[in-house]
Recover the amino acids of this structure.
């Protein structure tokens, strides 16, 4: 059942004080990966370098590659934000409460992004290793060969003629 407050279209005062979801839309924890136009060239260079190194093949590897790229890009952004906070004149991030809170948030995002990077990279390398060890064409050829050389079997319980 819907709340009468929602049905009336009014918002309680505590809802008005709640922060917006802007940080989840555009910040370190954004749901969608957004590259500012000012960073587009650097991001494209990084993507091209990663593509040359990793060389993903197939949809699964490309999805994992995108996760690796997004996590690493976020790690770089966190490190830049950390350096910017540390280089701010007349503000000591360890003594200023606001700067300290901002630094804690950056470090939390940094830890999360580094972990996401390690996990996605490990998964991607594992998938690539399996693909190289068991190429699809080899598996298909082995399957066809085994079907061709296997003796014909009659289904169990089938009646055979005695003629």
């Amino acid at each position: 059942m819907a709340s009468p407050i929602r049905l009336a279209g009014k918002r309680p005062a505590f809802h008005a004080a709640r922060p917006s979801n802007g940080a989840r839309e555009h910040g370190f924890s954004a749901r969608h990966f957004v590259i500012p136009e000012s960073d587009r060239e650097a991001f494209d260079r990084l993507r091209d370098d990663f593509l040359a190194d990793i060389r993903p093949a197939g949809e699964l590897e490309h999805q994992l590659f995108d996760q690796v790229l997004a996590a690493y890009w976020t790690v770089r952004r966190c490190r830049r934000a950390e350096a910017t906070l540390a280089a701010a004149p007349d503000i000591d991030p360890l003594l200023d409460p606001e700067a300290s809170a901002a630094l804690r948030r950056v470090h939390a995002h940094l830890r999360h992004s580094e972990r996401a990077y390690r996990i996605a990279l490990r998964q991607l390398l594992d998938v690539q290793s399996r693909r190289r060890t068991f190429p699809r064409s080899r598996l298909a050829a082995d399957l066809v060969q085994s079907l061709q050389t296997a003796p014909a079997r009659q289904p169990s319980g089938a009646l055979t003629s005695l003629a």
In short: Residues 97-133 form the longest helix (37 residues). The helical segments are 4-8, 13-16, 22-26, 40-54, 58-87, 97-133, 136-149. Residues 35 and 144 are 47 Å apart (CA to CA). The radius of gyration is 28 Å.
